Amino acid sequence: MATNLKLKGNWNILKGKLKEKYGELTDDDLAYVEGQEDQLLGKIQKRTGEAEETIKKEFFEEY
Predict the structure, then answer these.
(1) What region holds the CsbD-like domain (predicted)?
(2) Buried b vs exposed e over 19-36: b needs ≥16 C-beta within 10 Å?
């Protein structure tokens, strides 16, 4: 998963949106460290089963 991702917007707002859309995500799943967007995307994808592209479009920007 060697992409250059950047979160879209404020992390706290995005975290709320992710939890709202994917209720199965836990705080541990959403533990975010700046610069580790790829790992976060992988955790979300693994937990929700959602397609990578769907998650990227909604919550990430690619550079």
Answers:
(1) 6-57
(2) eeebeebeeebbeeeeee
